[in-house]
Amino acid sequence: MALRQRLSAALLDHAEPLLHRAYGGRKQVMFADLPDTVLEIGPGPGANLRYYRPGTRLVAVEPSEPARRRLERRARRRRVDLDLHDLAGEGLPFADRSHDVVVCTLVLCSVDDPERVLAEARRVLRPGGRFLFCEHVVAREGTPTRRLQSWLRSPWHWLTEGCHLDRPTGELIAAAGFSGLERHDFCLGPAAGPARPHVWGTAVR
Description:
- This protein has about 200 residues and is of the alpha/beta class.
- The chain has a single domain (about 1-205), classed as Vaccinia Virus protein VP39 (Rossmann fold), CATH 3.40.50.150.
- The chain is built from 6 helices and 7 strands, in the order H-H-E-E-H-E-E-H-E-H-H-E-E.
- The protein has helices at about 1-15, 15-30, 65-80, 115-125, 145-160, 170-175, and strands at about 35-40, 55-60, 80-85, 100-105, 125-135, 180-185, 195-205.
- The protein has a 7-stranded mixed beta sheet with strand order 3-2-1-4-5-7-6.
- Strand 2, helix 3 and strand 3 (about 80-85) form a beta-alpha-beta unit.
- It starts with a helix and ends with a strand.
């Protein structure tokens, strides 16, 4: 597991420019009006740091030690004030209604209990607070991509430290009890293979 975590953190770190090209336009819209303090679940090595203003206080919940090391270095370069917690998203150590914004991108596919993570995110948001998400999701039933996701489910899960290709994350967010939801569906290009279908948007507490 430790070796896979190191490899995964290194791969995501080096892929940050590619991730920016794939998601940057949408993330710039999502992160256009952030408060001074942001809570992010599963930031990994810091693909979202480029979208935070210098001086932002980032409260980060990240269980991977190799990812935390890289996140700390990148946060210093980006002049982001990092408050880092070695925890998973299923048990956030924060009071009810204590945050204005929770960010979660490309995380709900690989957590053990996405419903619990969403419940925790909603719990710690203040009324009117925003949950910002961008996630790859299961393809429509009967499509070639859906069949490919089914064929690759097990090897993909092992190679990517638990990522689920066929998780209906959009529907899970819709069912999480938020008072408002703005959801946008999109697909990446063929290079994304079975992880092409995505959702992004904002859910309001």
